[in-house]
Design brief:
The structure holds two protein chains of two kinds.
Chain A: H1 2-28, E1 33-37, E2 42-44, E3 52-58, E4 61-65, E5 68-73, E6 78-79, H2 81-86, E7 93-96, E8 100-106, H3 107-116, H4 118-149, H5 157-172
Antiparallel strand pairs in A: 1-8, 2-7, 3-6, 3-8, 4-5, 4-7
Helix pairs in contact in A: 1-4, 3-4, 4-5
Chain B: H1 16-25, E1 27-31, E2 36-38, E3 50-56, E4 59-62, E5 73-76, E6 81-82, H2 84-89, E7 96-99, E8 103-109, H3 110-119, H4 121-152, H5 156-162
Antiparallel strand pairs in B: 1-8, 2-7, 3-6, 3-8, 4-5, 4-7
Helix pairs in contact in B: 3-4
The chains are: A alpha+beta, B alpha+beta.
Chain lengths: 178, 164
């Protein structure tokens, strides 16, 4: 049992390190909670407050907006960044699609780390700010290009849903599973 | 311009000590009408890339689409950032930002930011949190606009924001 737990911890830290570096991962690990997941477990619900950042370390989760499943994400996926940072309602619903596990950290812990362990907070925030800035920049550019290309054409509602659905995936990193 | 940081809600959670240090490292200057803060397509070199926080006045944001003619047009005012995205994501400038009249802005470049990280990682981390919250709110606003258009099947609001 202990060997398996140690192995799971090493694996989780490696997943974290891919985003925040080995040093950052080591500094952050003590402040993250490991949550076991069973298929059907809800990580967060669209429209409800969810000040948690999740990192999938085992298994798969499904991202849904409204009734539509947008994408499935596996180990190494970060979810819930927006609500985690601004404490507003979740932008989508995320449900465990298989059994697995995720790491999570709450907004209040992040604020506390900013004073007590700034190096750990900084490693996490560097990754998040870079990721959010990239998505806003690339998502906006993608939308502007589409608007410009389709300027003189009226779109049917299902066409609107198609192109904006892709934009939504790009903005929130829901597309392109790693 | 003194105590400018306290004018803006987004810095409210920072302590007086943090604000005092940050106000020392931002360089507040006055820029004439027509001054171009960042130019579309430019990539700042590793250390000269900078962001600005508008303290007084307004800045016009324009971007051309690949076919020409269309662009993102917005006006930013006091408390808003100019050039933040490309500084953080290391991407080319997405738009040209021009002073509409006389503008007072606080400038922070990447080299100074790196120095802050080495000098006081605590202030650095708490400033990062302010920036991260701002980005999250921006992304939420954009996502909400897109989701609303998907729900209604009408993309006019999105076109207005991103078209001419």
């Amino acid at each position: 049992v202990y060997a398996r737990r140690r192995e799971a911890r090493v694996q989780a830290e490696a997943i974290l390190a891919a985003a925040v570096g080995a040093e950052g991962a080591a500094a952050l690990m003590p402040h993250l909670e490991r949550v076991p997941l069973a298929a059907g477990d809800v990580l967060f619900t669209e429209g409800a407050p969810s000040p948690w950042l999740w990192v999938v370390v085992e298994g798969e989760v499904a991202v849904r907006a409204g009734q539509v499943e947008l994408v499935r994400r596996g180990p190494g996926s970060w979810l819930g960044e927006v609500g985690f940072l601004d404490k507003g309602p979740a932008m989508a619903t995320v449900v465990a699609a298989t059994s697995g596990a995720a790491l999570r950290i709450g907004h209040d812990t992040l604020v506390r780390l900013g004073s007590d362990h700034p190096a750990a907070a900084s490693a996490l925030l560097r990754h998040l700010t870079r990721q959010l800035a990239t998505r806003i920049a690339e998502g906006s550019a993608g939308i502007a290009e589409e608007v410009s290309a389709g300027e003189y054409r009226l779109r049917k509602p299902e066409e609107v849903q198609g192109w904006l659905g892709r934009a939504l995936e790009q903005l929130f990193g829901w597309g392109g599973a790693r | 311009v003194s105590a400018w940081m306290r004018r803006f809600e987004r810095f409210a959670e920072l302590s007086d000590e943090d604000v005092a240090l940050l106000e020392r490292i931002f360089v507040v200057s006055s820029y004439p009408a027509g001054h171009v803060f960042v130019r579309e397509g430019e990539r700042g070199s590793a250390t000269t890339a900078a962001m600005y926080l508008i303290v007084e006045g307004s800045v016009r944001v324009e971007a051309r689409a690949p076919e020409g003619g269309f662009g993102v047009r917005r006006t930013l005012g006091p408390g808003q950032f100019v050039g933040l995205l490309s500084l953080l994501a290391d991407t080319p400038r997405a738009a040209t930002c021009t002073a509409e009249g006389k503008v007072t802005a606080a400038r922070l470049d990447r080299a100074t930011l790196q120095e802050l990280f080495r000098h006081d990682v605590g202030v650095y981390a708490r400033f990062q949190l302010v920036i991260a919250k701002h980005l999250a709110q921006d992304l939420r606003e954009l996502g909400t606009l897109v989701k609303e258009a998907i729900r209604s099947g009408d993309d006019r609001a999105v076109r207005e924001r991103f078209g001419r």
